[in-house]
Amino acid sequence: MRTIAPDLWWIFLAAAGAVTILVVAFVIATLAQQKRHVAAVRSFSDRLLAAHEEERALVARELHDDVLQRVAVLVGELDDKDRTPPDSREAYARWVSEFREEVTDLADDVRHIAKRMHPAVLDHLGLEAALEVMAEEMQRVDGVRVEMNIDLPRKSTSLAKELTTSLYRIAQEALRNVAQHAQVDHAVLSMSEREGGIELIIEDRGEGLPEGWEDTVQGLGMTSMKERMRLINGRLTVTPSDQGTRVEAWVPLRRAP
Ligand SMILES: Nc1ncnc2c1ncn2[C@@H]1O[C@H](COP(=O)(O)OP(=O)(O)OP(=O)(O)O)[C@@H](O)[C@H]1O
Ligand SMILES: [Mg+2]
Predict the structure, then answer these.
(1) CB-based contacts of 48: which residues, under 8 Å, 6+ apart?
(2) To 10 degrees, the CA torsion angle through 37, 250, 130, 119?
(3) Would you put residue 126 in left (φ > 0), alpha (ψ -120 to 50) or beta?
(4) What is the pLDDT of residues 76-97, one digit of tens each?
(5) Which domains are delineated in the chain?
(6) CA of 196 to the centre of ligand 2 (A)
(7) 20 to 30 A from 200, CA-CA: which of 18, 190, 219, 234?
């Protein structure tokens, strides 16, 4: 039997020790990275949950503090008129007209709250119509004109609901970002069928993303868009474009098996 020279044993032991140290260090680093990843995902989910809770709280507040109070005032007015009816036909007609106006205003506000929760037009008329309405509102409220280039060979009402809702929410957040951060009065929204899916692009020629935005931004918008796309096996890329920002979303028409 051949024996190993004593100095070779030392080399063997040193090598085995080094390999063990490397393996242990690798395992520790992997575990630490996994822990950081889990913490990041959890912190994002917490923030998303908090944002949804905040939205619900806002709607509850609007319903309670505004809508309910106004309904109470209207009921009070009815009771008042019941006790002391107007003394002439003209006074009565004037009161009815004012009352109708108040009820119409209230209905408008309730419609606005409902639309914010979920745009009914998306279900009934499809994605193109819902995006048109969004663009009109954007022009009216924020003064940003949205140029629409939509070219879909199929009717969007035939698309899966989760797909149209996701694309609608992406357009909403990307356009809100244009209005809030880009300092421009014009954006372009394009949508077409490509590579077995639907591609949505929102582009502006404004301020552009701040340096190092990917590592430093605290906003929920970008993360929420990415998370939405991840959930339906889509892709989202946000890139600085020539003098501005380009948000590109792609969703597959068929679900992954
Ligand atoms: N179109 C854009 N033009 C210029 N900067 C942008 C644009 N879109 C996003 N940004 C920059 O990227 C940051 C992150 O956007 P994100 O939507 O995640 O957050 P936010 O808009 O600041 O906040 P939130 O969406 O939570 O209200 C913004 O704060 C802004 O600095
Ligand atoms: Mg945003």
Answers:
(1) 220, 223, 224, 227
(2) -20
(3) left
(4) 999 999 899 888 999 999 999 9
(5) 1-117 (no CATH), 120-252 (3.30.565.10)
(6) 29
(7) 219
